[in-house]
Q: What sequence folds into this?
């Protein structure tokens, strides 16, 4: 759609990899999207296939079960997943994998990463609580050390992959007298007694992803479930990974906008009203011209972020700027595209309507866009 533009980070190897990811999406995601939306989770078989093809941890070293690629490989996965309804919540497993790779002990890496990479273990991240979303330091979930165990108590909500996960990375207070320094992260096997999933939450969009409450009632885990070896590092670990989570949301936003533009151009060429194709009305052409300019601007912006991510120089400010700006463009683009579909745009049968509903949450999760603006404002 954006003729003669090639992302500066794109290589021949990545193009081939990206073609393979698209084939996976065509074969395993596209035919299942509506079924997954109805059942509210993606099939385990798709996870296992993604694992077999090396799509879950493509940028993790092979010694830990990853595919030994780089961030460019992972970006190719995110783009394709987002453009195909985002049902397969691989991103959560990827983020947890990187928490472990960057902050875990050697034993933790060897224990978890191969299983995450293969899709055998689906991961979730449990930060948010009914009383603590944006203000993470106020979490009330407690982890108390008792001999060679931690005992975890608390409740979490809005957890993606909450119904299907096998391991959940939980943020809990290990020292209530401290603020950020009293927070630690725990890898909890969901078979542990005392762990309970709440109901599947009913959402406005993102119907193919399971989102759920979680309860921890005297959940006893061995001490080596603490991520890393030192208590109180949880908040800093989170902060070090959040830019990548936000960059990933931006990558998804751009991929969705690109697809929306393609779908809308095709539809308006096809649909005839008052004896002519919808695209022949000046309003449609002007809207699509605006959308095309927005999509190209968004693509070049995300490419700067991706390049820095690949180079290892992505900072919090840039990632937050991208997260809020790109997800807001995503909302506008989808809204304007949907309008050109008329009533059909509002039907679930058409991907544009599903994409529109799915996109709304991107301005809320991963740190709300107001919080992103706060982060950016601190750099002024
Ligand atoms: C579909 C979905 C999936 C999710 N998946 C996960 C997950 O996997 N794991 C997880 O831990 N969480 C998850 N979340 C939770 C998500 O990250 C939170 O909803 C988000 O961080 C906002 O927290 P909150 O909902 O408590 O809103 P609140 O923090 O109560 O915010 C309410 C409003 O106040 C604004 N606000 C808050 N603080 C400030 C401030 N300082 N300045 C200006 N405005 C402010 C917010 O931007 C928002 O508009 C998910 C949420 C949804 C909807």
A:
């Amino acid at each position: 759609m954006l003729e003669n533009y090639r992302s500066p980070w794109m290589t021949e190897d990545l193009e081939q990899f990206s073609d393979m990811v698209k084939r996976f999406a065509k074969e395993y995601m596209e035919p299942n999207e509506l079924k997954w939306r109805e059942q509210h989770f993606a099939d385990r078989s798709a996870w296992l296939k993604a694992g077999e093809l090396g799509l879950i941890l493509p940028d993790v070293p092979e010694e830990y079960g990853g595919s030994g690629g780089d961030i460019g490989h992972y970006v190719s996965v995110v783009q394709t997943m987002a453009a195909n309804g985002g049902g397969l919540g691989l991103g959560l497993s990827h983020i947890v994998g990187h928490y472990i790779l960057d902050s875990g002990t050697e034993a933790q890496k060897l224990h978890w990463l191969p299983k995450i990479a293969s899709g055998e273990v689906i991961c979730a991240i449990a930060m948010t609580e009914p009383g603590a979303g944006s203000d993470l330091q106020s979490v009330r979930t407690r982890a108390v050390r008792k001999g060679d165990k931690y005992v975890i108590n608390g409740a979490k909500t809005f957890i993606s992959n909450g119904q299907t996960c096998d391991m959940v990375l939980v943020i809990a207070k290990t020292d209530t007298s401290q603020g950020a320094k009293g927070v630690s992260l725990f890898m909890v096997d969901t078979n542990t007694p005392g762990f309970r999933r709440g109901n599947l939450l009913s959402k406005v969009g993102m119907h193919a992803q399971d989102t759920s409450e979680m309860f921890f009632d005297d959940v006893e885990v061995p001490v080596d479930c603490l991520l890393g070896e030192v208590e109180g590092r949880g908040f800093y670990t989170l902060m070090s990974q959040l830019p990548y989570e936000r960059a990933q949301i931006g990558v998804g936003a751009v991929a969705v906008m690109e697809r929306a533009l393609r779908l809308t151009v095709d539809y308006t060429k096809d649909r005839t009203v008052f004896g002519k194709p919808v695209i022949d009305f000046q309003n449609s052409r002007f809207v699509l011209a605006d959308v095309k300019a927005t999509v190209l601007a968004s693509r070049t912006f995300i490419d700067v972020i991706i390049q820095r991510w690949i180079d290892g120089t992505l900072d919090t400010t840039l990632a937050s700027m991208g997260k809020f700006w790109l997800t807001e463009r995503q909302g506008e683009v989808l809204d304007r595209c949907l309008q050109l579909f008329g009533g059909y745009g509002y039907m679930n049968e058409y991907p544009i309507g599903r994409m529109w509903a799915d996109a709304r949450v991107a301005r809320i999760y991963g740190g709300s866009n107001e919080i992103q603006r706060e982060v950016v404002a601190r750099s002024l």
Remarks:
- The two ends are 35 Å apart (CA to CA).
